[in-house]
Amino acid sequence: MNFNIYDFTEFVNSIKLWLNSVLPPAAADIAGFVIIGICFLTFIVILGLSLVYIERKVCAFFQQRLGPMRVGFWGTAQTIADIIKLVFKEPLISKGSDKFLFNLAAFIVIIAPFMAIAAIPFAKGLHVLDFDIGLFFITAISSIGVTGILLAGWSSNNKYSLIGAMRSGAQIVSYELSVILSLLTIIVLTGSLQLSVIVESQRDGWWIFKGNIPAIIAFFIFIIASTAESNRGPFDMAEAESELTAGFHTEYSGIKFAFFFLAEYINLFIIAAVGATVFFGGWMPLHIGNFEFFNNVMDFIPPIIWFFGKIAAIIFLIMWFKWTFPRLRIDQLLTLEWKYLLPINLINLLLMALVALSGWHL
Amino acid sequence: MTEQELITNIETVPETQEYFINMGPQHPSTHGVLRLLLTLDGEIIKKVEPHLGYIHRSIEKMCEKDSYQQIVHLTDRMDYLSCHINNEAVCLCVENGLQLEIPERVKVIRTIISELTRLSSHQLWWGVMGMDLGAITTFLYGFRDRELITDIFEETCGARLTMNYNVPGGVMFDIHPNFQKRTKDFITYFRKKLPEYDELLTGNVIFTERTKDIGYLSKEDAISYGVTGPSGRASGFACDVRKRFPYSAYDRVEFKEIIYTEGDCFARYKARIDEMWESMKIIEQLIDNIPEGEHKAKTKAVIKLPEGEYYQRVETARGELGVYIVSDNKKSPYRVKFRSPGFSNLSALDTMARGNKIADLVATMSTLDLVIPDIDR
User: Fold this and answer.
1) Which of A160, B148, B210, B365 is the most buried (most CB within 10 A)?
2) Where are the alpha helices (DSSP H) in A98-229?
3) How many CB pairs under 8 A join A and B?
4) Among A270, A290, A291, A273, which Cα is nearest to A282's?
5) How close, in Å, is residue B365 to chain A by CA atoms?
6) A255: burial class by Cβ within 10 Å (0-12, 13-18, 19+)?
7) In the Cβ-directed half-sphere of B288, how many Cα atoms lie within 13 Å?
8) What pLDDT was estimated at residue A186?
9) Cβ contact (<8 Å) for B360 and A328?
10) How far is the alpha carbon of B174 from chain A, nearest alpha carbon, in Å?
11) What is the pLDDT of residue B10?
């Protein structure tokens, strides 16, 4: 096995060959699926735990306090302790709730980001699903999550949950438009929905720098809309703890509550990953035209670090929003989308088409 | 169309149904055990019915068996955020009844302590206001600055929340040697920090969108509901007791009565922020000029008020607190009645919130600055 931190293609292929050599073809495929599944499960659990920890620390520093400090070094084991607590908690189901849908909702919410994460290119060759409609797949799959939220609100037999779910439904359906349109603005330049192609097209510079003004506008709209789509503050209408106690997941406890919690953070990761891939070149290092020396230095940093660095920056930005802004009201939220973001987006898309046609981009 | 057709026509129109929600007694934004029965149409509020009594401790009845010195200690459990001012109200009332001559030093100390209390109450309100609107960070900022005032109080009277400093005739102990210095330090510190409040919340687009033209209360309504304090003054009702009926040392200090005419949430917010500036001004005028003298006038061990009725009003952080004592010349009063600002302010909530959304109700309630134990007593 030749492990190369800059290119995982050979490494992945050698594993595949090895599996094929020791197992019959069908079993080798199944073994491959299982290995990928286990890898993703571990990755997602670690991701969820660390994002919760990061959020706590970031929020604490914004609020001039220390955050968790007692469990483990600098409180690093705090989230693990919390998960253990949630696992051992009694799963309460309130009287009069639709038990089947109530249980199903939690799984739908967690399945959506699980599937979406498979299509994300982590580094060169480290990519599970790389097909020609990758970006379309991610946006389509991650919108399944809203079904889970609506079901959770409906089946809880709680009016707060129902209001939260209806808010969330209206919000996610509206903001999805803006997310997709802002991504389309860049697709005009790449000409492909395949994520590996999108990354490859940014070899000589990221689209946010190359794409002229429309790309910058598109990025801002993407950040706003995707924050709204993931139900995070200042758009956390669906939870709005000061209005609706906890919104759609009021009635959930134990591990099912943990599912909602985990799904929120994985969604956050996916948003950041899509944003990084489309606007900031994914795992592609920062390259400036023909500046050879600089490009070589940048190439020296492994792509996986580039990718996670970009994601961390975007996640920090989104957390920054959450811990500084007050929450919008539901009608203001929808006004923002339908009266401002969507028209700007459509015009921006036209503008980008114009830029692409006349070759004003780099 | 015949009548029958009309009826069937009406029945086929899909209707939205009104429904009820119990907001409280356990709810994050009622700030205590207040229960609001909301009638909703979708998210629009049709009616708000406050239900009280979840934290009723019959303080007024308890007063009837306690001596006048003991009554003072019950009042800081009413509006725990302006406890010094509550205590002062009872003390002033008793002193009026006894026709006691109060040393000048006591008057000045009481005024400074009252204004510090007002500041700390408004700081907490500001933090909670932000939290109600979803900006949790403000809560911690408010508490950071409030902590310094609480430290001053701890040094002065030994407690941090239910503080007792006033007694009939004066104050319990003389001020701590550090008091003047620490207070001055705090004022210099907070003069720098208050603009930070504006940066974080006041100038925010989302915040102004959430509060402007929301929870409107007209001047007429404010007067007829008896909405006092910053909430009333934001509707143009000039009701500052400190200006209209000065007590303690308020007659010798310069300060502005903050009056806004908009009557919406933003005006109430601005009124409180401006009041913090005015409070600091008052403290600055007095802190260097505390006259020398006794910290307490001589009173008998058992106070007996002459037969009659006594009323004293003071301006707490939430509005006008009235103390009404009926005495029959015994060592405990015959009847005590508190006119608490929170109760009257809450009564206007229905008028203010009708037709708005749930999120607006939270904002409105937050700008009324309700303290539930003050409402229930």
Assistant:
1) B365
2) 99-117, 134-142, 145-155, 159-190, 195-200, 207-210, 212-229
3) 78
4) A273
5) 11
6) middle
7) 6
8) 86
9) no
10) 35
11) 59
Q: Which of A242, A244, A340 to mutate to test the interface with B (most CBs of B within 10 A)?
A: A242
For chain A, the domains span 1-88, 93-358
Residue A188 is predicted with a pLDDT of 84
Domains of chain B, each with CATH number or no CATH:
53-376 (1.10.645.10)
Residue B161 near chain A (CB below 8 Å): no
DSSP state of A85: H
The tens place of each residue's pLDDT in chain A, 362 residues long, gives: 566 777 777 777 788 888 888 888 888 888 888 888 888 888 888 888 888 898 889 888 888 888 888 888 888 888 888 888 888 888 888 787 888 888 888 888 888 888 888 888 887 777 777 888 888 888 888 888 888 888 888 888 888 888 888 888 888 888 888 888 888 888 888 888 888 888 888 877 787 777 778 888 888 899 888 888 888 878 877 676 667 777 777 888 888 888 888 888 888 898 898 888 888 887 877 777 677 777 777 777 788 888 888 899 999 988 888 888 888 888 888 888 889 988 998 998 888 888 888 877 66
Burial of B335-369, coded b for 16+ CB within 10 Å and e otherwise, reads: ebebbbbbbbbbebbebbbeebbbbbbbbbbbbbb
Contact (Cβ atoms closer than 8 angstroms) between residue B273 and residue B126: yes
Torsion angle of the four alpha carbons A226, A227, A229, A233, in this order, in degrees rounded to the nearest 10:
180
Could you identify the residue written with the tokens 């009837």? B64
Residues of chain B short of pLDDT 50, as ranges, are: none
H or E element, residue B48: strand B44-51
ipTM of the complex: 0.77
A324·B29 Cβ contact <8 A: no
Half-sphere exposure of A280 toward its Cβ, with a 13 Å CA cutoff? Answer: 21
B311 vs A257: CA distance, rounded Å: 55
Cα–Cα nearest to B271, from B217, B311, B226, B307:
B217
Residues of B in contact with A160 (CB under 8 A): 21
Which of chain A's residues have a Cβ under 8 Å away from the Cβ of B359? 240, 243, 327, 329-330
Contacts of B41 in chain A (CB under 8 A): none
Q: How far apart are CA A190 and CA B210, in angstroms?
A: 40
Closest residue by Cα to residue A160 from A233, A100, A242: A242
| pLDDT one-digit tens code per residue, A85-101 | 888 888 888 787 888 88
DSSP 8-state secondary structure symbol assigned to residue B201: I
Task: Please enumerate in sequence order all residues whose Cβ is within 8 A of that of B64, keeping only pairs 6 or more positions apart, or say none.
Answer: B332, B333, B334, B335, B336
Length of chain B: 377
Asked if residues B83 and B76 have their Cβ atoms less than 8 Å apart, the reply is yes
